[in-house]
Design brief:
heterotrimer; A alpha+beta (365); B alpha+beta (157); C mainly alpha (346); B: 157 residues; alpha+beta; Alpha-Beta Plaits; two-stranded antiparallel sheet; 34% helix; C: 346 residues; mainly alpha; 2 domains; 14 helices; globular; binds iron/sulfur cluster; quinone binding (chain A); translocase (chain A); membrane (chain A); NADH_Q_OxRdtase_suD (chain A)
Chain lengths: 365, 157, 346
């Protein structure tokens, strides 16, 4: 008797396209995916536990290491949470600097998304191009805080230092060049029929299902759900800017791609507006050296490039957090992988994984 | 028309083919790091240090290990100061905490090592040695090396 | 063989020298065959070395990098260094591999890639063997490469390899058909399958002018035949690591690599011969024209690779059967009708 059976393929943890050390256990029927179960934990460093033995301020550098391609957002989320707990007022100029930095970081992060999507689909030139533009942003960060990836720039009560004088001209140069760069990517990738057919109608997640599972960020908005914390619950000074939230329709890989490409444009416009409105002044409020938040708990979330990044802190009134939990969007978004991949082909798993844009540093906190 | 996007993409890559290259040839050309660059190893100025230990206290990862002692005039001074660069998060907290600006980054980003124990830097010894001998700035040294390699390459060609 | 070419003369002289030392003419023949094989192997290795270097430079330039530039002047010796490195590498055989199949696969892949070299018309009268079924021979030889891929995939005892092997069969078989059909139009026009006759028929007009559709179909199918992006599913790095080659190391892997670049050269040469007029061209000597055109074709294939994303396996199949095949058939019909009309009027 002839019979067929499925076989198991371990994709990762050492695999060219699992973005860090993710293992996806694929159950395959020929090339068709029956199940795709992500196994994580290869990058677990126990950051949440580490927080309990660090002072509040000392934990900021560790947030850099969560989602290491958008560290500014991580810094911001954490600092705002603690500020909410203690009740610190942040100076105007610092607020604007925070916006500029996080939005630039969003662009940088989406550029990585674009590049890694391109190389996962076999177009390595797209990746090189994406990384080239990102380099311009990293240069700006380097100028402002001396680091290219682990910034620790945003601190309680402001930012660590005012921007140097050469920063603004360089930023303006970047903002003028950016539309041309974006146009180049659109011509190289977005217009490409092969890319379109690879992404269109693969890995569809309906809006309803996305909400049920708790997807956030571009992955949720691609499914047509209009939820952006910057609009819904404006933190910092986001209510002062005029920007739109790009939405997708069907929630396939293509929508997730387009939503992110559009978001870059919006972020650039926010940076431009912030640059125009930014007042002079100090960038740091007076904050006690050793912070002792009152006993209690607080949750605060911001819109990171990958979704809702939330910090939940329990304080017992001491110098260290009693418990700290991070709601990591990458981790929660990754849940949908199995559902989105069922019935697709091996090549599509890569595309779904790339468009969900989960970052292993954040998945294994 | 089908295929227009493909041709457009080919135009982009062809243009890139003839454009200026973006990369730098690393060992010959080195980027100058911005003023605020955090990286390399900690450089201690023994004369400025008052052995207060604030840097070690501020450090989130216990990177700095120092012991102090008092001399005849009851003045505190450092007995040892070890910086474990393998553990460092490069967060700048130690430098910000120092009341006398006794530490700073040496800005030499070429700090890969063959052995793990070479990552532990005895800053005090380096600082003492430096004040004893004539100051050779690390930047000059790397410049000299740079010229050397350039010369060698010229000879090769 | 009536063609007396430079290479042929060298062979004659060698044969003469050997005849002095070896008593038996049969021994001389054997020696000559060995020398021929050695020569072809050298040529292919050299081609691979040059092509790898070119590929790395082209890819670098398209990505705004400078590419290899350390070993030798302008990095030209980089691929030589890589070759030496590959030869020095440890030869690892996976546990549970099907030993003989595993060992044979790279060799069997390499033989057809080398064998097609004999029908390349480098210049007027410079052709190793001007078979009267030259094109047929090329097609027959190049389709041999399906089996070794499957062998390698099966024998490696690795799932990625197996998936890659299965993909190869699907892809190569379905792209062979439109490729043959696209070539058929040329054969109809030239009225011969002999390489030299086909080139001679293009003295005035290149066949690319008369057969533009066939050219497009040929280029697409050829890209698929040699497993290059956007049809590099067989070794799709981000999906199945390296497909059938996943478990190979050192020299065995290098054989795959050599065969790949030999095939790249082969399809470019055939494209030049069939569509771009072979050695025909004004002013310059024939072989210069030939190599210029081949270089152009190779650049085109590299350009594709460094621009396009990869197709998916089902899209690849439906594109082959539903678009390329009808297109190629249509081309044949149009060519036939056109030829009939042309004959009717003249
Ligand atoms: S940079 Fe940060 S981690 Fe490194 S020694 Fe200073 S305080 Fe410690
Ligand atoms: S904080 Fe400055 S002065 Fe105090 S021990 Fe450290 S280096 Fe010395």
């Amino acid at each position: 008797m002839l019979k067929t059976e499925t076989f198991t393929l371990n994709m990762g943890p050492q695999h060219p396209s699992t973005h860090g050390v993710l293992q996806v256990v694929l159950e395959l029927d020929g090339e068709t995916v029956v199940q795709a179960i992500p196994h994580m934990g290869y990058l677990h460093r126990g950051i949440e536990k580490l927080a309990e033995s660090r002072t509040y301020a000392q934990f900021i550098p560790y947030t850099d290491r969560l989602d290491y391609v958008s560290s500014m957002g991580n810094n911001l989320g954490y600092c705002q949470t603690v500020e909410k707990m203690v009740g610190i007022k942040v100076p105007e100029r610092a607020e604007y600097l925070r916006i500029i930095m996080t939005e630039l970081n969003r662009i940088a992060s989406h550029l990585i998304f674009m590049g890694s999507l391109a190389i996962d689909l076999g177009a390595s030139t797209g990746m090189m191009f994406g990384f080239r533009s990102r380099e311009r942003i990293l240069d700006l960060f380097d100028m402002a805080c001396g680091a290219r990836q682990t910034y620790t720039y945003i601190r309680f009560g402001g930012v660590s230092a005012d921007i140097p004088s050469e920063f603004i001209p360089a930023l303006q140069r970047f903002l003028t060049d950016f539309p041309a760069m974006l146009d180049e990517y659109h011509r190289l990738l977005t217009g490409n029929e092969i890319l379109y057919h690879r992404l269109k109608n693969t890995g569809v997640i309906s809006g309803q299902r996305a909400l049920e599972i708790g997807l956030t960020g571009p992955a949720l908005r691609a499914s047509g759900v209009d939820y952006d914390i910057r609009k819904v619950e404006p933190y910092g000074i986001y209510d002062r800017f005029d920007f739109s939230v790009p939405l997708g329709q069907v929630g396939d890989c293509w929508d997730r791609y387009i939503v992110r490409m559009e978001e870059m444009k919006q972020s650039a416009s926010i940076v431009t507006q912030a640059l125009e409105q930014m007042p002079e002044g100090t960038v740091m409020a007076t904050v006690p050296k050793v912070l002792k938040p009152p006993a209690g708990e607080v949750y605060h979330s911001i819109e990171n490039p990958r979704g809702e990044l939330g910090y939940y802190i329990v304080s017992d009134g001491g110098v260290n957090p009693y418990r700290l939990h991070v709601r990591r969007p990458s981790f929660i978004n990754l849940q949908v992988l199995n559902e989105a991949c069922q019935g697709l082909l091996i090549g599509d798993v890569v595309a779904v994984l790339a468009t969900l844009d989960s970052l292993m540093g954040e998945v294994d906190c | 028309m089908v295929g227009k996007g493909l041709l457009e993409g080919m135009r982009v890559t062809l243009k890139a083919f003839f454009n200026k290259k973006e990369t730098l040839q690393y060992p010959e050309i080195k980027l100058t790091m911005p003023d605020r660059f955090r990286g390399g190893e900690l450089k201690l100025d023994n004369e400025k240090c008052i052995a207060c230990g604030l840097c070690a206290r501020a450090c989130p990862n216990h990177v700095i290990e120092l012991t102090t002692g008092t001399d005849e005039q009851k003045k505190r001074h450092l007995k040892s100061y070890v910086y474990h660069s393998g553990l460092c998060l490069y967060c700048n907290y130690c430098i910000e905490a120092c009341p006398t600006n006794a530490i700073c980054w040496d800005k030499n980003y070429e700090n890969s090592r063959y052995f793990k124990d070479e990552l532990d830097v005895d800053c005090l010894a380096i600082s003492k040695q430096k004040s004893a001998t004539v100051d050779v700035a690390p930047a000059d040294k790397s410049n000299a090396e740079q010229e050397d390699t350039l010369k060698r390459r010229e000879k090769d060609e | 063989m009536q063609e007396i070419t430079g290479l042929f003369k060298i062979a004659e002289i060698l044969r003469g020298i050997l005849g002095h030392f070896l008593p038996d003419p049969q021994l001389v023949d054997i020696c000559m065959s060995l020398i021929n094989i050695g020569a072809i192997f050298t040529i292919i290795s050299l081609t691979a070395v040059v092509l790898v270097y070119t590929e790395r430079k082209v890819s670098a330039f398209m990505q705004r990098r400078s590419g290899p530039n350390r070993v030798g002047p302008g990095g030209t010796l980089q691929s030589v260094a890589d070759m030496i490195k590959l030869m020095a590498k440890e030869d690892i055989m996976p546990a549970g591999a099907d030993k003989w199949m595993w060992i044979l696969a790279p060799i069997l892949l390499f033989i057809p890639a080398a064998a097609v070299f004999v029908v390349f018309p480098f210049d007027n009268k410079a052709i190793f063997a001007d078979l009267n079924i030259g094109i047929f021979y090329f097609i027959a030889m190049s389709s041999q490469s399906v089996l070794p891929f499957l062998m390698a995939g099966w024998a490696s005892n690795n799932k990625y390899s197996l998936v890659g092997g299965m993909r190869t069969v699907a892809q190569m078989l379905s792209y062979e058909v439109p490729m043959v059909l696209s070539i058929l139009g040329i054969v109809m026009l030239a009225g011969s399958m002999r390489m030299s006759t086909i080139v001679a028929a293009q003295q005035h007009t290149w066949f690319i002018v008369l057969q533009p559709i066939a050219f497009v179909v040929y280029v697409i199918t050829a890209t698929a035949e040699i497993n290059r992006a956007p049809f590099d599913l067989v070794e799709g790095e981000s999906e199945i690591v390296a497909g059938p080659f996943t478990e190979y190391t050192g020299m065995r892997w290098a054989l795959f690599f050599l065969a790949e670049y030999a095939n790249l050269l082969a399809v470019s040469v055939i494209a030049t011969t069939l569509f771009l007029g072979g050695w025909n061209g004004p002013w310059l000597p024939g072989w210069v024209w030939f190599f210029l055109k081949v270089g152009g074709m190779i650049f085109l294939f590299m350009w594709f690779r460094w621009t396009f994303p990869r197709l998916r396996i089902d899209q690849l199949m439906s594109f082959g059967w539903k678009v390329l095949l009808p297109l190629a058939l249509l081309n044949i019909i149009v060519t036939g009708i056109g030829m009939y009309i042309y004959e009717f009027f003249s």
